[in-house]
Specification:
8 helices; 38% helix; 236 residues; Carbamate kinase
Length: 236
């Protein structure tokens, strides 16, 4: 079986600033890192969020029913996924996009076996629509898909160089963890992933690595096993 990773990208990660919805420079940056993995014969599954458009919880506060709001959020992830897929295809990358539900003429429904076959071929699969159910975050979707696809690790792209004991922008004494256990992550409420996602990883022995995706070349470091970000172990 080909080595494979799952990369979790938030919707906000695709925007270079608060004024952007989708930034071509960020699409290029992530495409370059993904291409690095493919060139090293590693299949990549990408789960994208939709927070650069809106979040279900935020829409709910405006009066829209939560189930409807979450469905709108799932469509937002598809828009991001289509943009990323198109960008990679224009670069010549072998990539396929799936959604948790079929949308005729736009995207095919997620199929675990087809997606796994593409990963084994050293290709990219972009997974949109979250879990396909309301009340679940795209972090949970990322961990669920990672377990289904039997990847090596979940890579969570962030704008900081790992997990800290407190917000490093507000507390200069914040400590960065090189390694961490999921139980400690939950106990200290460090906010890296939600509880459902964390429990999924813990119960299914799926490690998580939090990386600074703003620094070019981070994917190669992950591949080569160099220290980068924070590794969250499922059974510590």
């Amino acid at each position: 079986m080909t080595r494979s990773f799952l990369l979790k990208l938030s919707g906000e990660a695709l925007a270079a600033s608060e004024q952007d919805i989708i930034s071509p420079s960020m699409l290029k940056a992530y495409s370059d890192e993904i291409e690095c993995a493919i060139n090293n014969k590693i299949g990549i599954a990408v789960v994208v969020g939709g927070g650069n458009y809106f979040r279900g919880a935020s829409l709910q506060s405006s009066g829209i029913e939560r189930v409807i709001a979450d469905k709108m959020g799932m469509l937002a992830t598809l828009m991001n996924g289509l943009a990323l897929t198109d960008f990679m295809r224009q670069k010549g990358t072998d990539v396929e996009i799936y959604h948790s539900s079929s949308i005729d003429g736009v995207v095919q429904p997620y199929n675990r076996d087809l997606a796994r076959a593409r990963l084994d071929a050293g290709e990219v699969v972009v997974l949109t629509g979250g879990t396909g159910n309301p009340f679940f975050t795209t972090d949970t979707a990322a961990c669920l898909r990672a377990i289904e696809l039997d990847v090596e690790v979940v890579l969570k792209a962030t704008s900081v160089d790992g997990v800290y004991s407190a917000d490093p922008t507000k507390n200069k004494d914040a400590h960065r963890y090189e390694t961490l256990g999921i139980s400690e992550l939950l106990e200290k409420e460090l906010g890296v992933i939600d509880m459902t996602a964390a429990v999924l990883c813990k119960e299914n022995n799926m490690p998580l690595q939090v990386v600074d995706s703003q620094t070019p070349g981070w994917m190669l470091k992950v591949i080569e096993g160099d220290p980068v970000g924070t590794i969250v172990h499922p059974h510590e």
